[in-house]
Every structure is written in structure tokens, then in C-alpha cells.
Design a protein that fits this description.
Blueprint (H helix, E strand, L loop, with lengths): L1 H16 L2 H8 L3 H15 L4 E4 L2 E4 L1 H24 L8 E7 L1 H18 L3 E7 L13 E5 L8 E8 L1 E5 L1 H7 L12 E5 L7 E4 L6 E4 L1 E6 L2 H9 L4 E5 H9 L4 E3 L8 E7 L6 H27 L6
Parallel strand pairs: 3-4, 3-5, 8-11, 8-12
Antiparallel strand pairs: 1-2, 5-14, 6-14, 7-12, 7-13, 9-10
Helix pairs in contact: 1-2, 1-3, 1-4, 2-3, 5-9, 8-9
Amino acid sequence: MTDRLESMTILVAAVEAGSLSAGARRLGLPLATVSRRVAELEELLGTQLVQRSPRGLTPTEPGEAYLAACRSILEQVGEAERMAAGEFREPKGLLSLSAPIVFGRLHVLPVVGDFLERHPEVDVRLEQTDRPVSLTEEHFDAVIRIGDLADSALRARRIGEVRRLICASPAYLAARGRPQTPEDLAGHDCISFDRLLPAGRWSFGEGTAERQVRSRARMSVNTAEAAIAAAEAGLGITRVLSYQVAESVAQGRLRIVLAEEEPAPWPVHILFRAGIVPRKLRAFVDFASPRLAAALSAHGARLAEAPVSGT
């Protein structure tokens, strides 16, 4: 079993380094040893795990699945050994996190700062992106995910929910009128946020009752902050998430419209892999969950108190 774990370690290092020779240098092993151990794994499994070419080393389709399993096994073995050795009395090590851009800036960064202050032996790598990320393939310990979850082997800690709001500036609504139905959007200037909805058609309702309505996108942007700034400037009506726009609504720079047509809120979770949970990750999830939940709850309360256009 020790030889198998060593071979897994060699395979992972070679793929991550991009070539057998680079993997050998990283591990301080002869190239012949690295090449032989990878070939032995392929022979044992009866399938090609990697493709070798002058441009480097790339995993095959079965190799991708096997690499993911190798990383998980090696991580769990390493954590079990450190726990047995008493290394995890205090959280320590690098914690890799991902969060949506605006949510990360508003909420995750402050929580991470407080967490680092409390746990001096932990370092954090935080990637803020609105694209979906893979915990396994991109080596994240945890991600903040907004939206309904697909079935998976990941563990999830729910921290709240967010609304999908349609809003516009008071000046725009005074000049162009307030839409009474989703179909009225066809006669308005709309600002599409590509991450949340495509230009040209916005969806309303849920499940079998969902319907698409035509919209006229005078402007299309790729960040929520740009959509909000454009709406505040009176350029049109936009749809964004509640935490992104809570401050603008509370301060009267934007007004919510078509609130009665909102779809069901999206849940917000912290996702992390099942199995042995490192102490650093368990400490972060326990620390961050109530704080992020409180922030989302506070946004909900502020929006509930804000005036809706036409009221």
C-alpha cells in the first residue's frame, strides 16, 4: 500500500508540474524512476492515465478521474497522519477559498481577516470570481456557492438566501414610469448583467410556471457592480442579487420594482469535500457560517424596510 501511495504522489506531482521531468525535479527523483512508477500504475489499472507529448503531460479522461481520487486519498492520509502526530491541536496550514466577487468583497474578506487574526498559523488564498469553480480540480478547500445545488458528494453548510431583485433609479422611474408586469419590460431600457441573465430575455416564475419575457438591453455588462452603477445613473432597469444592491436600495439610490414577480430566493452555502475535514477548514466553516448568515439576514431586514417603487 505504501508503494501505491508513493506512485499516486509521483503521478500527481508529474501532472501538476506539467511533465515527467518537471515532476522528477520537484520530487528530487530520477526521471527513470518517475516514468517507471507512472507506467506501473497504468499497467496495474489497465488503462492509459496520461498522454505524453513534447508539449507536456496531460491526463486522459480516465486519468482525470483517477487523479481526483488520488488527490483526495493523499490529502486524507496526510491529514490523518498529522492528526495522529498531534499537529492539529491548533489550526494551521494554507486554506484555499473561493467566493463570488461582490459577496467576497463585502462579506468574506472581513470574515477572513478576523479568522486570520484569531488563527495565526493559518494562511488563506482567496479567489473572488463569479464563474463556477471545482473544488477538486482547482484545489479549493471550500467555496461560497449561490444558487440551487446539484446532487454531489460535497458537504454543504447553508448560511442563508438571496433574492433576485429588479430595480431602477427614482429618476428613471419618474421619467419612464414603473413597469406593472414583466411584459412591460419590453418598453423599457434594461441593463443586463451577463452572469445573472442574458440580454434580450428575462425569466420569471418557477418550474412549469416559468416564462421568458422580452427585454430591450440598452446596456450589457459582466459585473454586478457595473450594472448597479449604470442603474443608479438612470440608464435603465437591472436585475441583481439582494446583497449586491442592499445599500443602494436602503439609501434610496435605487427602487425595487416588480417585487411581486420575484422568483424564489436562491440559497447560499459553504461547500467543502466530504471525508476527513482538516482542522483549519472545520475551524473556518464554524467561524464563518454564523457571521455570513448574520450579514445575509441583515441585508434581508434592510430591504424589507426599504420603500418599493409606487408605495
